Amino acid sequence: MRKQLPPKIIPLYLPHKGCPHQCVYCNQPLVTGDEDHRSNWRRMLESIPQHTDQNWEIAFYGGTFSGLSQEKMYECFALVKPYIKSVKNCAIRISTRPDYVSDATLEFLWTNGVRTIELGAESFNDHVLQRSGRGHSADNIRDACARIAARGFTLGLHLMCGLPAQSEISFYETVEETVRLNPDLVRISPTLVLHGTPLAKMFHRNDYQPMTIENAITQCCHAYKIFHQNNIIMARIGLALSDQDGDGANKVIAGPWHPALRHEVESSLAREAITTIIKDKNETRITINPKDISIVYGAGKSNLQYWTTHLNREIKIERDRNQPRHSFSLSSGERFSLFNIPENIT
């Protein structure tokens, strides 16, 4: 059964620790800093309230956690276990590679409180994986997913679009394969050309052409819609690059970087769904939850401008706190998803 509310995450970074090599697009120290900043971990861990009904997870991100020695993994567990014991509904989450989760490793992780494993899958196309320097196959991903799910972990998959040799079709095939594997959650990152990566050298040699922001939004919209239809949680869209120095734009040489990519994707989906339904139903009024106003309006009220221009009518948008999130209702009472269009609506 899917979790109704995703857990709150306390991210603890181990940049590039446990990774066997550098994938062509990766510069983890640039993204999260080149130190694991354990001096800050206590402050972050102590921010977890001890009395709460909210689920919490302490997440080890930024490297291949199960690629660490068992001694190093145990050191990390020992640091966070006092908080696991003192906080209600708190567990551990890790990120790792599909080829670093043997049965013995999974048993060790489970015994030490890990309940969620996020796998860096990226693609189910072997040629794309090879060109991206992943060092594992699509079969490795399938095998890891089956064993992780069978052991009872919550399974997350990280996917990328715009990888070297990856077409739109091969990305959509990866999306369909992901649905068949039925993970609990997915993250999608359009490929960025970051400083200090092999991909940057490929880009400067004209051996790699990054995707446009428009194409990235289109592909992410397609994936989001498919995952939404299949009750797979979309945990994140886009690479987290912001830090104390800014939004992260200075880390990117080229590619579809956007500081609020998820918002752009959700706004695009909302525009499509609302446009289709109000045209089909000949409506001019919808009701939404107040918390969805930003994605419905679009950046700079672009969706409102779109409806005025393309539908030649003004759409009246009412707000109701009782309206379920990520949905809208018509004056007839019919309710629809902001992120999906029913099959009987054309």
Please give the structural blueprint.
Blueprint: E1 8-13, H1 28-32, H2 38-45, E2 56-61, H3 70-86, E3 90-96, H4 103-111, E4 114-122, H5 126-131, H6 138-151, E5 154-161, H7 168-181, E6 185-190, E7 193-194, H8 198-204, H9 213-229, E8 233-237, E9 252-254, H10 261-281, E10 285-288, H11 293-297, H12 302-311, E11 316-319, E12 327-330, E13 335-337
Parallel strand pairs: 1-2, 2-3, 3-4, 4-5, 5-6, 6-8, 10-11
Antiparallel strand pairs: 7-9, 10-12, 12-13
Helix pairs in contact: 7-9, 9-10, 10-12
Walk me through what this model shows.
- The structure is a single chain.
- The protein is of the alpha/beta class and 346 residues long.
- It folds into two domains: 8-259, TIM Barrel (Alpha-Beta Barrel), CATH 3.20.20.70; 266-337, no CATH class.
- It contains twelve helices and 13 strands.
- The chain has helices at 28-32, 38-45, 70-86, 103-111, 126-131, 138-151, 168-181, 198-204, 213-229, 261-281, 293-297, 302-311, and strands at 8-13, 56-61, 90-96, 114-122, 154-161, 185-190, 193-194, 233-237, 252-254, 285-288, 316-319, 327-330, 335-337.
- The strands form three sheets. Strands 1-2-3-4-5-6-8 form a seven-stranded parallel sheet.
- The protein is globular.
